[in-house]
Amino acid sequence: MKHRSRPQPLRIGVHCAVIDGNNNVGLRILLSRRGDLNVWSIPGGRLDSGETLQDCAVREVREETGIRAVTLYPVNLYYMQGWRRMNILYAMRPIGGALRSKTTEAHDNRYFPVDELPEGTFFADRLHDIWETERPYPRIIETPNHELRRLRRKFAMRWIYNLVSGRPEPRYPVFRVYASAVIRSEQGARVLALPAARKFKYALPRLPCHGEAPIWEQLAEMVYSACGTLPRLQWVGLWQAAHADAIEFIFTASAPESETIRAGMWVAPRFGGFGDRDHRFVEKVIAHGVDHPVWTIFHDDSVRDGTVIPAAKKQILSHRSRK
After folding, report:
1. Can you tell me whether residue 62 is helix, strand or coil?
2. What's the confidence (pLDDT) of residue 306?
3. 184 beta partners
4. What is the CATH number of the domain that holds 62?
5. Could you tell me if 29 and 18 are in contact, meaning their C-beta atoms sit under 8 angstroms apart?
């Protein structure tokens, strides 16, 4: 009898788009010339155990460039096909520090006008999502097999170099990653729910996620299996308990009530029945939909709506309107 191997866990990382300047003198973005691949790229790296995603973005920028920056808001999700990894892109603003010409991870660091990036800039396609006037859908980034092999050789050489240099790379931490969906009826008055397994009456569609497929596709398939509707999901929120290495990504979509069959049911949120966390998710989606920056809820229930700095956000949105 053959035993199916357990799916591998999802690796989590960040991309950091540090944007400086204003609309009078032009916006610039911070790029690093990577030491391992010798290409220009936005800063980024893996999430550490016990670390919030925002703190991870701040740390990676400081380590790679010397710049102190703050996160403005999460932009989008990118599943890296073949790597079992998902990266979260943050829009950020510099607030201090000194730009270092070289670090242990970068051969060079510079600001470039957002419309004049060096040819072949790594992850440049992701930057377009910052200027989109509508919320972008999560994206799958595919890498051809020959390029996968080349990059893996490069990363293996980096691993060996760091090991012999006395800076061994840590193993990827294992996170408990979940995805949940707030599916609204096309009329907007009701929400798709499943029977709750515990003390509450209703629960949002939710599942633990692995690294073998994009989490939004795993969630969409679960919703279809349980409820008979196949939604096209947009990312709207993030919940994180950093001390427990637990992260939940919240998605939304709309669907006609006539499509729902099987175990699903349409319920009016104002009548209650959801657990506290699910109720918070539903409230946020109803209040903001997809016309608001991705929001963050931490385990202590303090809500940070992207920690948006209004002036910086205004500059970015103004640049969007000119594209």
Report:
1. helix
2. 39
3. 191, 254
4. 3.90.79.10
5. yes
Q: What is the pLDDT of residue 229?
A: 87
Please state which of the ranges 18-32, 118-132, 137-151 shows the lowest mean pLDDT.
18-32
209-219 b/e (C-beta count within 10 Å ≥ 16 → b): bebebbbbebb
pTM to 2 decimal places = 0.89
CA 272 to chain CA centroid, Å, is 30
Average pLDDT of the chain?
88
| Residues 119 and 192 occupy one common structural domain | no
Tokens of 1: 């009898």
What CA–CA distance (Å, rounded) separates 207 from 7? Answer: 14
Joined tokens for residue 61: 């920028």
Domain ranges, residue 137: 11-143
Cα gap 191→255, rounded to integer Å = 10
Distance CA 219, CA 224 (A): 9
**Inside any domain, residue 153:** no
Euclidean distance between CA atoms 160 and 171, whole angstroms: 14
Q: What is the pLDDT of residue 283?
A: 93
Return the ∠ at Cα 123 (arms to 122 and 129), rounded to 5°. Answer: 150
Q: Is residue 61 part of a domain?
A: yes
Euclidean distance between CA atoms 26 and 5, whole angstroms: 52
